[in-house]
Design goal:
The chain has about 250 residues and is α/β, with parallel strands linked by helices. It has helices spanning about 20-25, 45-50, 65-75, 95-100, 155-160, 170-180, 205-220, 225-245, and strands at about 5-10, 30-35, 55, 80-85, 90, 110-115, 120, 125, 130-135, 145, 150-155, 185-195.
Length: about 250
């Protein structure tokens, strides 16, 4: 089986990325690192020493562009499967073994992703174009998911691309929405991953920068329903104000 894994990393050393460490430990998986870092972290050398392919984006060009560049790089190798990873997901041997047992077909396969506390964050359900936590993953009517651990069939990876209007937020949901519009099936894998949220920002300036990215992506994602985008941004501003108690949060 010809399997490639894409790890997009940003301002983190590869040796500190659980996704990379797990992927590179699999002897039958080809790993491509796409580096969105704005800092010099010696990731190219670490990738070389580990036997991974390395692509530099020469700064943070956004998640969608990094995934697209990686998919173009992989395309000539005609993979059976392409694994999509960020840099902070804890993968298990069970995940990789489940991947190896997949039959080559036209479906996207997604794992169950939880937080350290056990809350399911993926898959989720789309309700009125909003991703909502699923109470029962076996009864999701309109399925969506995050990128972590998503497995794309090779022919889909060769033709489908991420929406480059989106920098970070909703990149995965838009990708799956586009795939579903092409009648691509999505299947839930019988395996679980853990998403690491231990490094979330707490400083207001960092949170404000993060909000501005969210704002730009939300406006693009809801370009056909701008009222919904404005409502979501209002809720996020109020949440940020409650967290930081700074009036500036209401005017970002």
């Amino acid at each position: 089986m010809n399997v490639w894994a894409i790890v997009v990393i940003c301002n983190r050393r590869l040796s500190e990325s659980p996704s990379f460490i797990s992927a590179i430990s699999q002897p039958d998986i080809q790993v491509v690192v796409c580096d969105n870092s704005t800092e010099s972290l010696n990731n190219q050398e670490e990738a070389r020493q580990a036997g991974a392919w390395y692509l530099s984006m020469q700064g943070n060009k956004g998640l969608s562009k990094a995934y697209n560049r990686s998919l173009e790089f992989i395309k000539p190798n005609h993979p059976d499967w392409v694994v999509i990873l960020d840099d902070d997901t804890k993968l298990t041997d069970h995940y990789w073994n489940t991947l190896r047992s997949l039959k080559t077909d036209q479906a996207i396969h997604i794992p169950v992703v939880k937080t350290d506390s056990g809350m399911i964050i993926s898959p989720a359900e789309m309700r009125r174009d909003l991703p909502v936590a699923a109470k029962d993953i076996d009864r999701i009517k309109d399925l969506t998911a995050i990128n972590s651990g998503m497995v794309l069939p090779g022919d889909l990876a060769a033709r489908q691309r991420y929406d480059e209007r989106l920098f970070l937020d909703n990149v995965d949901h838009q990708f799956l929405k586009d795939c579903k519009s092409e009648h691509v099936k999505i299947e839930i894998m019988s395996t679980e991953l853990i998403q690491d949220f231990s490094a979330e920002e707490a400083d207001f300036d960092q949170l404000a920068r993060r909000f501005r990215i969210f704002k730009r992506d939300t406006i693009a994602y809801y370009s056909k329903n701008p009222w919904k985008g404005r409502f979501i941004l209002l809720k996020r501003r109020l949440r940020l104000f409650a967290q930081c108690r700074k009036l500036e949060a209401l005017f970002l």
